[in-house]
Design brief:
Elements lengths: L13 H14 L3 H21 L5 H12 L6 H13 L4
Amino acid sequence: MRTTPARFDLKLDSGEKEIVARAAALMGTTMAGFVRAAAKEKAQTLLERETRIVLDERDFARFAAAVSGPFEPNAHLSRTLKEARRKVRRA
């Protein structure tokens, strides 16, 4: 599958541009290539960190027990299910 490139403009002050240019040269790539790779790496790291849930042993044991045991709806869910059954008729 081929994707269409999307444009992203970025303004840097002269000091920032110099730093990026030097780093890109050290990596043997263009400034655009360097910025693209650095932004993607940083974004992936952030997304991984923010979408992962880490539990200690006690909390994991509680979670595992909750999802392994039989399902028991709480009072609010039980009322909602009864109301839905009353309102919805199956064909």
